[in-house]
Amino acid sequence: MGILDQIVKNKRKELLGLKEKKSFDRLRKEVERLPKKKHVFFRALKNAKDIAVIAEIKKRSPSKGSLCGDFKPVAFAKAYERAGASALSVLTDKNFFGGSIEIFKKIRAKTKLPLLRKDFTLDAYHVFEARLIGADAVLLIAAILSRKELKILSRTAFSLGLDVLFEVHTPRDIEKVLPLKPSMIGINNRDLRSFRVDLDVTSRLIKRLPRQALVISESGIQSAEDLLYLKRLGVRAALVGESLIKKKDPGAALRNLRAGL
What we know:
The chain is of the alpha/beta class. The chain has a single domain, classed as Aldolase class I (TIM Barrel), CATH 3.20.20.70. Helices cover 43% and strands 17% of the residues. The chain has 12 helices and 10 strands. The chain has helices at 3-21, 24-32, 40-46, 73-82, 101-110, 124-132, 147-159, 171-177, 200-205, 224-233, 242-245, 250-258; strands spanning 52-57, 60-61, 65-66, 87-91, 115-118, 137-141, 163-168, 184-188, 214-218, 237-240. β2 and β3 form a beta hairpin. The longest helix has 19 residues, at 3-21.
């Protein structure tokens, strides 16, 4: 069983436990009492003066293990905000990435930046949970969802005022999401089954995407040169994680990344 299959299997098991602790009806009622979201994540990227950077906060990855010896998520979030990030991506998967709902909530309380809840969304429960903890956007990974699931989950998210980042890695993934007329499409340069990274995946796939979609390149961005390369391809935003968080000063690393723009 590959890494992605393991993650999804664990996520389904985890979901059953969540529903036992709090029913979907109870979760939905809690969310219904909240004010409506206003799609701020998409607007923050669209209105960026240059290619936007979504700075990611995660403790570890399945392929590389621990990424940061002194993991200070709230401090990182503040540093990224000061350094010019347009938005943040916060991992909430615990078993494979060292994230949690609690970490997400702490970051939400300390930053005004729009937040993407980065996780393996499989069920409407996950979408409502994302809204409850203060997320502005959710990730829908085409590789792990059927066309019907993508449609249902995206409509659920939109109904709650959340933006949706549809993630693709192959032409087949693109075929799944295009009928939904996505406003944002993330091209993941990392193959989630092997965890190999190739920045040119963006170059190959962006040609297949509609011009009106805001395209985000995810994973493998190491330098200012990489950012400029993506900008020339027509990419509007880049999601950057490991190359920042592994540095002694992630905020300074982000400033250096954006310096050549």
